[in-house]
TrEMBL record:
TM region positions: 74-97, 123-150, 162-188, 200-218
Keyword vocabulary terms for this entry: Membrane, Transmembrane, Transmembrane helix
Region (Disordered): 235-254
Pfam families, alphabetized: PqiA
Protein name: Paraquat-inducible protein A
Length: 254
């Protein structure tokens, strides 16, 4: 096939010119592949550099934050997770609120609210609430707790890679803060019609929201590097797609 305009040399197939060789699609990264990190905004590759505590590294091309040194915060993650598990049990056992109306007194728990959604033929909403507020938060804290306990004892969990990959998959689906906001709005509306009293389950769920939000905000990538494992998908790429630049802490857009 012929084009009315000349094509760049890199676009031509191997048979278009004598002795032409097809260029490789990608070249292997020099050195350790885990020493590289890709900008999520522009895909520029950077070498991972050690920076000061709580300092940020920015992309040299677009200025987007690449990572932040939160290695010291990993020690805070264990008490957060253990406290969150205790509060989680309280939030699921005790009622969220008690309603008084028409001489009747009714208390509902988190599971009671999920069952009520199912009884009103809202199966999708019931499953969504059960997964995002009950199952995924419990799974996230449960898989991290043994790993963090082993780290606290100076040991490495035998299934550390599997546990961290599972935590990376579960992490985006733990949405207790969204459910908590919905519960508060619903209780405010119901309180206009009946007498409503907040119970221990609601306060425990509010505390769980705070603990889990702080735990989810802690970056686990220092954990991967600390135990010498391959970083999870998305933390680096296997071939350069941009300039071979190094991440500079605090550097702004050029």
């Amino acid at each position: 096939m012929k084009f009315p305009f000349p094509l760049p040399q890199s676009w031509r197939a191997a048979g278009d010119a004598p002795n032409a060789k097809a260029a490789p699609v990608a070249q292997p990264l020099p050195g350790d592949p885990d020493a590289w990190i890709a900008c999520e905004h522009c895909d520029t590759l950077h070498r991972h550099e050690v920076i000061a505590l709580d300092e940020e590294a920015h992309c040299t091309r677009c200025g987007v934050k690449l990572y932040r040194n939160q290695s010291e915060r990993l020690s805070v993650l264990l008490p957060l997770v253990l406290t969150g598990l205790i509060v989680y049990i309280v939030a699921n056992i005790f009622p969220i609120a008690e309603m008084n109306g028409g001489g009747n007194r009714h208390a509902t728990t988190l599971w009671g609210a999920i069952v009520a959604l199912y009884d009103y033929d809202m199966l999708f909403a019931a499953v969504l609430v059960a997964l995002t507020t009950v199952f995924f938060p419990l799974m996230y804290m449960s898989v991290l707790a043994p790993l963090l306990i082993a780290r606290w004892r100076g040991r490495q969990h035998p299934a550390a890679a599997l546990v961290l990959r599972a935590a990376a998959l579960i992490r985006p689906w733990a949405m207790v803060e969204i459910f908590m906001l919905g519960v508060v709005v619903a209780l405010i509306k119901v309180a206009r019609m009946v007498s409503l009293e907040a119970d221990a389950g609601l306060w425990a769920f509010a505390a769980l929201t705070v603990f889990l939000t702080v735990a989810l905000s802690i970056d686990l990538r220092p954990f991967w590097r600390e135990i010498g494992l391959t970083l999870p998908p998305g933390s680096h790429v296997d071939a350069p797609t941009g300039a071979d630049a190094a991440a500079r802490p605090g550097e702004d857009r050029p």
